[in-house]
Amino acid sequence: MNKSIITLLVVFILQSSIAKTQKIIGFYDKNTGKELTLESSFDKNLNKDTIGETIRQLSAKPHHLSSPGDKENAEYILKLFNKWGWDAKIETFYVLFPTPKIRILEMISPSTFKATLKEPALREDATSAQTGQLPTYNAYSADGDVTAELVFVNYGLPEDYDILNKMGIDVKGKIVIAKYGHSWRGIKPKVAQEHEAIGCIIYSDPADDGYFEGDVYPKGAFRNEYGVQRGSVMDMSFYSGDPLTPDIGASKDAKRLNRSEAPNLLKIPVLPISYHDAAPLLEALDGPVAPEGWHGGLPFASHIGPGKTKVHLNVTFNWDIVPCYDVIAKIQGYEFPDQWVIRGNHHDAWVNGAADPISGQAAMLEEARSIGDLLKTGWKPARTIVYCAWDGEEPGLLGSTEWVEEHEKELKEKAVVYINSDGNGRGFLSAEGSHALEPFMDEIAKQVIDPQTKVSVFERARAHAAISAKNIEAKKKAWDEKDLKLEAMGSGSDYSSFIQHEGIPSLNLGYGGEDQGGEYHSIYDSYDLYRRFKDPGFQYGVTLAETAGHAVLRMSDADELPFDFTYLVKTIDSYSLDLMNLVQSRRESTDLENRIISSGGYAIGEDPTKKYVISPVKPDVPYLDFSPLQNALHQLEISVERVNTLIKNNITANSVSVTFNRSLYKAEQQLLIENGLPRREWYKHSIYAPGFYTGYGVKTLPGIREAIEQRNWNEAQQQITADAKAIMNLAEYFNALSPGGN
User: Fold this and answer.
1) Exposure of 166 by Cβ count < 10 A (0-12 exposed, 13-18 middle, 19+ buried)?
2) What is the domain range of residue 613?
3) Which of 143, 335, 410, 724 is deepest in the core (most CB within 10 A)?
4) Is residue 541 classed as helix, strand or coil in its secondary structure?
């Protein structure tokens, strides 16, 4: 018997043995061993040294959107895909991207001080002295030259302004200074603008992002006194992507809005600074001492102002339309070429971006290289695999959004799933996504092994959650959790347009938690810092590649697509109960506050020389009718049970139709609201959206939740009806699929 026959027999026996002992969601028993053997071969092809070299190569130069380094990286990635056997090309879009011409921040009274607005080069960091670095700035700030009194507003959130209002402090006509943290940066100038401030400064406080956390760079990983967090302040709560081409791809000849018409662009100037530059401004403030919880990590008492401290802020920009280079690579599916499994990670950075995003990009490219090696063995995916290296993520998810808007009709027909990653480091699995994919990801997380502890990444994440819990009850609950729970998706990375605009099932995967540091969006996000502090040995690059790669391979080859909508129903039901409890707690709280205020013994103000501010009585919280939502969820539960029966029967009979699989991946689209969310129609998903005042942070059942939070009771009731309709649409969609549906 010759060697090749012996090898085939061994593989067949191995596959048969595996198939008898293990099942995979969505696979016939006869195909399970084949899939697990494929994944084993995929894993063996992954190489941590190759990932490290890719991080070094792609972070060797500054490569912000439209820079020479950005184009070089896109062309380098294109060559790699083609070398590995993929059919790859660059799709170019043309997007609005401002870069700074003038940046001035100075204190003009009670003393003078001019901010340095620069991060110094370090001898321990080889790339920190390079030319071509973007200066420290906030993209999509308005042009502005303003002088005014300075007011400290804590983190610059709506609740901080409520406290200022109760203290009798008005920021109208003032320049505010806020700490980074507790929300996405763009919320801070947005709220300042709503309160009629004329400028906004954002600084990194050492209590949140500096020496309070640990040794600063270069001794440790944390932000040093000169480090500045660049970043976009485009208001992505309206829409992501190019501000001038909402809903359409930003081609060269696309019809564009005038800049003044774009609702997601600010009207006031904004500038980020270091805590070195912030300290003289904050120390000069007079006025009331800041409330408890507002004090940061600088070595003096925090005051709020306004008063004698005046500052001059001047920022102006080049408002250019620039090219945005998306690298799109495909492997045609041999059986279902019109079903696409899409994987993405962005390649642009604010400067060198070794952690954000190149660590994730390098893992994704290693997946692509390993899949290319599998092609050489004769394997081909059943479904088409599409790998995307996005450009322009940092300014506002530009490359991914424009690609999705350009290919909208095709994606709604063909996109099975979108699997995203971004930055990656040492630590614990983080997984967000469409909740019908929860069992699918649970299965993968229990099979991928953590490189430090040698247990599954699920077990390690569960142990971390239990150890980190704040009390014994929470610890016990975390430890008793038997299954992976997907977090809901907000925004802040390239999945947003897929799930929230198009209703395409999505996942966002990454590792971290033991890679803390303050390099984020600074010149110090470098290869030198990354290899020392973020993922020494690049082992978690391999772990991310295994996790996302297994998800891609299983989705591409599954006999029946691995969706379980039972988990979606349970999740939406929990969100509904949470909202009912929220209304009840608001009612009880309002009733109590009004009784206290009406007693005549309640006033706010600590300074006896100033007039006290008396809190007004709040309107009563009405009763909202949640029955349409509850009824719709009941109907969805019944219809999902029928579909699950059909799914099980299909697997048992080894018979799944192309039409049925297509119906499964298009199901989430039924949850879209045709007219979108109130005042931000681009977001159409009824279950998940970034919050209007949280930025990246998710709001679940967002139309209802945000109306309740804003005490807009009529809108809350309207949104209950809208969400109930979307859920009923999904129930009726499933009824049409399943036997006995009506």
Assistant:
1) middle
2) 565-737
3) 724
4) helix
